[in-house]
Amino acid sequence: MSDPGSDHHHDHDHDHARTVKPMVDEITDFEVLEIALRELCIEKGIFTAEEHRRFTEFAEQIGPTPAARLVARAWLDPEFAELAVNDSLAASKAVGVDWLEPTGFGTPSDFVAFQILADTPTVHHVIVCALCSCYPRPILGNSPEWYRTPNYRRRLVRWPRQVLAEFGLYLPDDIEVRVEDSNQKHRFMVMPMRPDGTDGWTEDQLAEIITRDCLIGVALPKPGVTTNAIVTRRPAMHPGTAG
C-alpha cells in the first residue's frame, strides 16, 4: 500500500482533479444567500415552495413585448404618448402590465416609481444601474447579462458615447446623451423616436422593430431590424480616450 503522503499519491490526485469535471459549477455568494433566504421564507410560511416555483416560472417568461406595444401605441396616438410620459404606470396598465400586481396572482412589485423617458431630436436616453442591476422587470422581463456586468454599469456613466458605440450606436455630437441611473425603488424605460420609413405602419408592425435594446437605449429602432443582435463592435481598451 502506498504512503498517503508520498509523491506518487499526490501525482495521482493531481491527475484525477485535472481530468474529472465537477458535477456543478461553483455557486456564488449571492446564490448561497438566495438559497438560504428562500428556504427560510418557506420555513416561516411567508410563501410555499409551490408559490415560489409559480412566481419563478412567471418571471422567466416575461419579455419586452408589452413595452414595445406601449411605445408603438404612443407613436400612433399623441394623447397616449403624453400619458406614457406623465403617468407611466397608467400607460403600462393600458398594455396589460399592472405594477401593483404584475403577476396577476397576488405578488406585487417591490417598487412603483416607474418613469418612461421620451427621446427627442436633441436628447437620447439610456438606462443603467451603476450600483447593481435594477431593471423594470414587470414590463421588460429579466435584464440581459451584459446589463448586469460591472463593465457596463461603471463605464456607461463615465463614457456613454464610447459604450454606445460598442453596441453599434453612433450619435451625432449635437445630441445630448442622458444616462438615467436606476435604483432600488425607481425604474426607467426609454421611449425612442419613431424612425423614418414607417409611415402608414400599424401598431403591430411598429412593435416588431422596438427591441429590448431600444427600450434600454443602446439601440435605435430601424425598419427591418427586429432582433437584438449586435452587428458591429469595437474594442474599448482605453475608453477614456476613445473617439
From TrEMBL:
InterPro entries: CN_Hdrase_a/SCN_Hdrase_g_sf, CN_Hdrtase_a/SCN_Hdrlase_g, CN_Hdrtase_asu/SCN_Hdrlase_gsu, Thiocyan_Hydrolase_gsu. Residues 1-18 have a biased composition (Basic and acidic residues). Gene3D superfamilies: Nitrile hydratase alpha /Thiocyanate hydrolase gamma (3.90.330.10). Residues 29-219 form the Nitrile hydratase alpha/Thiocyanate hydrolase gamma domain. Keywords: Hydrolase, Iron, Metal-binding. Its EC number is 3.5.5.8. Fe(3+) binds at residues 129, 132-134. Residues 1-20 are annotated as: Disordered. It comes from the Bacteria. It is an enzyme of class 3 (hydrolase). GO terms for molecular function: thiocyanate hydrolase activity; transition metal ion binding. Belongs to the nitrile hydratase subunit alpha family. This is Thiocyanate hydrolase subunit gamma. It comes from Mycolicibacterium mucogenicum DSM 44124.
